[in-house]
Amino acid sequence: MPLFDLPLAALREYLPTLDEPADLDKFWAGTLDRARTAEVLVEVLPVETGLSLVETWDVTFAGHDGAPIRAWYLRPAGIEGDLPVVVEFIGYGGGRSEAIEHLLWPTAGYGHLVMDTRGQGGRWGSRGDTPDPVGSGPAAPGSMTRGIDSPETSYLTRLMTDAARAVDAARALPGADGRVAVTGNSQGGGLAIAAGGLVPDVDAVMANVPFLCQIRRAIDLTDADPYQEIVRYLAVNRGREAAVENTLRYVDAVHLARRARADALFSAALRDMTCPPSTVFAAFNHWAGLSGATPRKDIEIYPFNNHEGGAATQNMVQLAWLRERMPVAGLRNPGPAPTPSTPAGRGASRA
Question: Is 186 annotated as catalytic?
Answer without folding.
Answer: yes
